[in-house]
TrEMBL record:
Name the record gives this protein: SpoIIE family protein phosphatase
Keyword field contains Hydrolase: yes
Gene3D superfamilies linked: 3.30.450.40, Histidine kinase-like ATPase, C-terminal domain (3.30.565.10), PAS domain (3.30.450.20), PPM-type phosphatase domain (3.60.40.10)
Naturally occurring in which organism (per UniProt): Streptomyces lannensis
Pfam families: GAF, GAF_3, HATPase_c_2, PAS_4, SpoIIE
PROSITE patterns, A to Z: PAS
Keywords: Hydrolase
Source domain of life: Bacteria
């Protein structure tokens, strides 16, 4: 039965893929389906990509919630697409390949999936089922005689107290009022720590605040009542969250002698540790962990260290998990130690020679002060004796479990055997939970990299690429990030971008990094530790603190001790550097950092390495694009004539449009230049084709025209020599249409022109009466025949006349089967009587642009010359 639905439509543009992913993620998290979010996002991403990118249609996404899972439907408007039939094993291809994997991923990840067709739509759907959760009996005991049952009062009262994320009481039931003497209004809003009498153990860091943040907790403590007396209670805590996502803790409390009401029953070991007194088999794992066991890795590890510490009556306990290559151990859970400082810290498996230097064998240290550094994790904690045992699965080291005490010589081989027995019972469960977490992380990483690749591929702007690179890492991978770039092999790394999850810390981090030497640009793949930021932050904080106490030099004008200490805290944790390598060259470094005493998980570093490879290629592509664009624009600008000269007695206006994105020059060209006193040369031409090859012939023609005209050659001689130069180019030559002329303004206000029209659209003359006529006769084009017999024609422009010269990009402007043509151009020109040269050129260009809606496919040039006549007295 469908219990909820959410739908959205996404336009056929690239950014819709990321928007669809966010829509599905937000919808499923709002429904409480966090277990299947990553799979749903990956599948939706592939199917929406197929629709909006490859099929080029809008995509309709529909999410349907039911009691046992969720169904997501993605529909496009391209029903002709076929379902790929697979008779052999599916080849998923490279994970970086875009598209083509949607149906294959459905088959791999979804419980059920299918494709449905209609005359106008194709719909792909998939069903993701919720993970099975255990139901039914969790614990049971035998039937006992009445005199053996636990003792309780006539009425058992269970106090229900709810604590918000800040540790304050938000709910207090009637049984709590009866047990402790406070009315609800007296305690609501007060911290539980004001009432709790917590049993502190020397050297133990876990207190009531830490216990309230655990997902589950059971144990004994006291509640100070209204009469001042402490009532011993047994408590069961459960961490929950409301529909808005805010966490809180529900505490169930009974009098300590009634603990049987809440206490999780433990099945004690029989003599053989596997069979109960009634002969039934017990689970050694549950004997140690208790039932119910936590269903998440962190909860399982935390329960393990707490039980291990209690079993050996220790002051602290810790559990480390091995990396995939078994060379390092990563701290994942601890009790009685500063867990925030130690979490995800790494130590080597082989810390020294011999049995006691390896995590692969059990070890007992009677006094750590006699062997400093034997257990690096305990340095500076006050612990003196420790016992550690390995966790192994099928002979492979998967972790290490240790218990420590503040007193010396607390443990012997007997305790090591007991702890090893427990470790052997939980190793398989821990490894299974770890593999499950790794699988979830892998799927989350895949979704993250898919989205990152989309974003990085969507821009070729260097600055935007740098910003995206940093924004994608914060806060998913790190707390702060800095990107260094290297212009060339001889350049030093330059700090290009800094980002912190707290915007107020960005300036402080940037100032700190600018004062220290950048990391070495080493091309070795993988993350490496960089200690310089942490050391510099520590020194800056120390100097600032000493100055504030009057123990150093007078403080200079600065942002103050608060800002300095905040910056030191922000960058005081672990910092790693990943090289940005593209095309076998280091083009920069990606620096990721954590705040004080925090470390990176190995999985996060591996994900950051994958991201750095994609980011490096995107950054280098942006650099190459910028460089080539700059070179292309510089070369193209060199082919354009300089600023047009002023011609006395003649108005001149030019409009030029090169076809193609990023092109400033194409196959069309124009020029106007002085030849000698009182004489000017002008030209407008069109080289066959567009792009760089046509632009090369454009440069040859324009420069040759100027050189030959200034040598005194007439129009026909100039074009004949240019024809020979074009033919000398051989295979690179291209034919050229050219209108060339010489202009002499006259004293009577008219202008004399001598023109040669070599295969070019004929120039049009507009008279003052509105009539339009060709001003030249057609002659052979250039670059085809060796022997040309060209001649020039003389034209006199009277005051008010206009000479319009265009390239065929104007006359051949098309809209479907219609073409503007010479007649259409003449019709537009007849409406330009009395306009200036600039107004004539602008009206012609507007008419051309309005003739068709599509972008021009050919270069266009317009040269308009008008003789205004002599000014009136």
């Amino acid at each position: 039965m469908i219990t909820a639905r959410a739908a959205a439509t996404f336009e056929p543009v690239g950014r819709s893929v990321a928007t669809a992913r966010s829509f599905v993620r937000d919808t499923l998290q709002g429904w409480g389906f966090a277990d299947i979010v990553d799979d749903a996002v990956v599948l939706t991403s592939e199917l929406v990509t197929n629709a909006v990118v490859h099929a080029g249609t809008a995509a309709d996404v529909l999410c349907l919630r039911s009691d046992d899972g969720v169904r997501i439907e993605v529909a496009d408007r391209y029903p002709e697409r076929e379902v790929p039939l697979q008779s052999a094993a599916v080849n998923m291809g490279h994970p970086d390949r875009e598209g083509g994997r949607g149906l294959q991923l459905c088959a791999a990840l979804a419980g059920r999936w299918g494709v449905e067709y209609t005359p106008t739509h194709k719909q792909v759907w998939f069903q993701l089922d919720l993970p099975e959760r255990p139901v039914g009996t969790r614990a049971a005991g035998p039937t006992l005689p009445a005199d053996l049952l636990p003792l309780a009062d006539a009425r058992v009262r269970v106090a229900v107290v709810q604590i918000d994320r800040g540790g304050s009481i938000t709910a207090w039931n009637e049984d709590a009022e009866e047990l402790f003497g406070y009315a609800a209004e007296q305690v609501t809003g007060k911290p539980l720590t004001d009432l709790a009498a917590w049993p502190h153990t020397p050297g133990t860091g876990t207190g009531v605040a830490e216990a309230l943040r655990l997902s589950r907790w059971e144990g004994s403590y006291g509640i100070r009542g209204a009469d001042g007396r402490v009532t011993p209670v047994y408590a069961s805590h459960l961490r929950v969250r409301d529909t808005a996502g805010d966490p809180s803790t529900v505490c169930l409390l009974v009098r300590d002698h009634e603990r049987a009401v809440l206490q999780t029953p433990l099945r004690g070991p029989a003599p053989d540790a596997s069979t109960g007194q009634d002969g039934q088999t017990t689970d050694p794992f549950e004997v140690f962990i208790g039932s119910p066991a936590p269903d998440d890795l962190d909860g399982l590890l935390q329960r393990t260290v707490e039980r291990a510490r209690d079993m050996l009556d220790g002051d602290a306990a810790f559990l480390l998990l091995a990396t995939d290559d078994e060379t390092e151990l990563e701290v994942r859970a601890s009790t009685g130690l500063p867990s925030a400082r130690q979490r995800f810290a790494r130590v080597p498996v082989e810390a020294g020679p011999g049995r006691y230097g390896s995590a692969r064998m059990p070890a007992v240290h009677d006094d750590l002060t006699a062997v400093p550094g034997a257990v690096p994790l305990l340095s500076g904690t006050g612990m003196r004796s420790v016992v550690t045992v390995p966790l192994k699965v099928e002979g492979r080291l998967t972790g290490s479990l240790g218990v420590a005490a503040e007193a010396a010589t607390r443990y012997s081989n007997e305790e090591a055997l007991r702890l090893q027995f427990a470790a052997d019972r939980i190793a398989l469960a821990v490894e299974s939970a770890r593999l499950g977490e790794l699988e979830r992380l892998r799927r989350g990483s895949l979704s993250f990299l898919v989205e990152a690749s989309d974003l990085l591929a969507g821009t070729l702007d260097r600055d935007q690429t740098l910003a995206l690179m940093a924004q994608m890492t914060i806060p998913t991978l790190a707390t702060w990030c800095a990107v260094y770039t290297i212009a060339d092999q001889a350049s030093e790394p330059y700090l290009s971008y800094v980002l912190h999850e707290d915007e107020e810390r960005i300036d402080g981090v940037k100032a700190l990094l600018s004062k220290i030497a950048p990391p070495e640009p080493i091309p070795t793949p993988g993350a490496r530790i960089w200690t310089a930021p942490g050391e510099a932050a520590h020194q800056a904080a120390l100097r600032t603190s000493m100055r504030s106490l009057g123990l150093g030099e007078a403080p200079a004008l600065s942002s103050g001790i608060g800002t300095t200490l905040a910056t030191a805290s922000a960058v005081g944790g672990e910092t790693v550097v990943l090289p940005l390598v593209a095309r076998n060259r280091v083009i920069g470094m990606l620096t990721l950092g954590k705040p004080t005493d925090e470390h990176f998980r190995q999985e996060i570093l591996e994900l950051a390495e994958d991201l750095s490879r994609r980011a490096a290629l995107a950054l280098d592509n942006a650099r190459l694009y910028s460089e080539r664009t700059a070179i292309s624009q510089s070369l193209q600008r060199s082919l354009l004539p300089p600023e047009l000269p002023h011609v006395d007695g003649v108005e001149v206006e030019v409009i030029y449009r090169a076809a193609g994105e990023g092109n400033e020059v194409g196959g069309d060209f124009y020029d106007l230049f002085p030849i000698r006193d009182g004489a000017y040369g002008f030209a407008i031409g069109d080289v066959c084709g567009t792009g760089p090859e046509a632009a090369a012939v454009t440069g040859l023609a324009r420069h040759a025209l100027r050189l030959l005209a200034r040598e005194g050659f007439g129009g026909p001689a100039v074009l004949e020599r240019l024809n020979s130069a074009i033919l000398d180019e051989g295979a690179r030559s291209r034919f050229l249409t050219l209108l060339y002329g010489e202009l002499w303004p006259q004293e009577d206000g008219s202008a004399l022109l001598k023109v040669v029209c070599a295969g070019h659209p004929l120039p049009l003359r507009l008279r003052q009466d509105g009539s339009v006529e060709p001003a030249a006769e057609p002659q052979p084009l250039l670059g085809v025949m060796e022997d040309l017999d060209l001649y020039e024609q003389t034209v006199t422009l009277d005051p008010g006349d206009v000479l319009l010269c265009v390239t065929d990009g104007v006359t051949e402007r098309r809209e479907g089967t219609r073409m503007l043509g010479d007649d259409g151009l003449a019709d537009v020109l007849t409406t330009c009587t009395g306009l200036t040269a600039g107004a004539v050129a602008a009206r012609i260009m507007r008419a051309v642009e309005r003739f068709a809606s599509d972008a021009p496919s050919d270069d266009m040039a317009i040269l308009a010359m008008r003789v205004p006549g002599l000014p009136k007295d």
